[in-house]
């Protein structure tokens, strides 16, 4: 749904040139913002990270704490912002108090559906006296619209359009590469330190695998939003995936020498990859805008002939455009460890 932004002149009949912004958000809600937006709070990981990509100087705080090891990969202006938490779930009262203490001009909510998003939460938001808007992203294909919407709401249209265009280019180029491929490698997403948790193919947590040709070996209906579907090693041996990806370094380190895992094709052929996660995960948890560099990374691993990018150069460009940082070689090596890269053929 295309967003709209317009102005109402308040007090025009009195000759007072005071402006209020009227916004139609992505959930088709009419929202009035009665002053210039300087500070915004996004009480979800998806919105918080997207707001950072758009305008770190406008952030009131983070929804979750940032590990010290990840702070060098963020704009200095955002590294030590307060952690304000979520306005739903456990600890919501203290989180609301913390959020209001920062006096945000706008709250950026996030929804996976444009239909009546989070009605109970809306009732709480109405009591805060702070205008709020919804960004809606049902899947990764919606992200360009989200960033254009944020560009309008935050009066940063040029920036929003730039990031939206970059995202759409990635989606289009990867689709072209996947469509050209004559063979689509089977992928197992190994979660947990034992690698025996994963996600069904319809889960929000593995949308990248859907975009890469629906290559998830675990085809099923997800049982709950949190995921972590349990599987057995016997199932994985039957799946016999060509590639395994994992966010767990403990699992990555142990799988190579495990007597049973060594029978799996991906392990046998050395195609087990650790998902990059500095400063935010490229694939999942949370499934944020970082998935766009994750999509490029995995597309190159699965389809090197059809999508022959230089992932190191693409990573530098992505971090410059979205993360507001310039990566030197040492930083790049931390993000793209050898565990995340395909072994070069001699």
Largest sheet: 3 strands, antiparallel
- CATH architectural category of the largest domain: 3-Layer(aba) Sandwich
Number of domains: 2
Record the strand order, biggest sheet: 1-2-3
Strand content: 5-15%
Per CATH, what is the topology of the largest domain?
Rossmann fold
**Helical residue percent?**
25-40%
Taken from the alpha-carbon principal axes, the silhouette is globular
- Highest-level CATH class of the largest domain: Alpha Beta
Tally of helical segments? 13
The H-and-E topology, N to C, reads as: EEEEHHHEHEHHEEHEHEHHEHHH
Average predicted confidence as pLDDT: 90
What is the radius of gyration?
22 Å
CATH homologous superfamily identity of the largest domain = Nitrogenase molybdenum iron protein domain
What structural class do you assign from the helix and strand content?
A: alpha/beta
Straight-line distance between termini: 50 Å
Give the low-confidence spans. 6-18
Q: Using DSSP, what is the number of strands?
A: 11
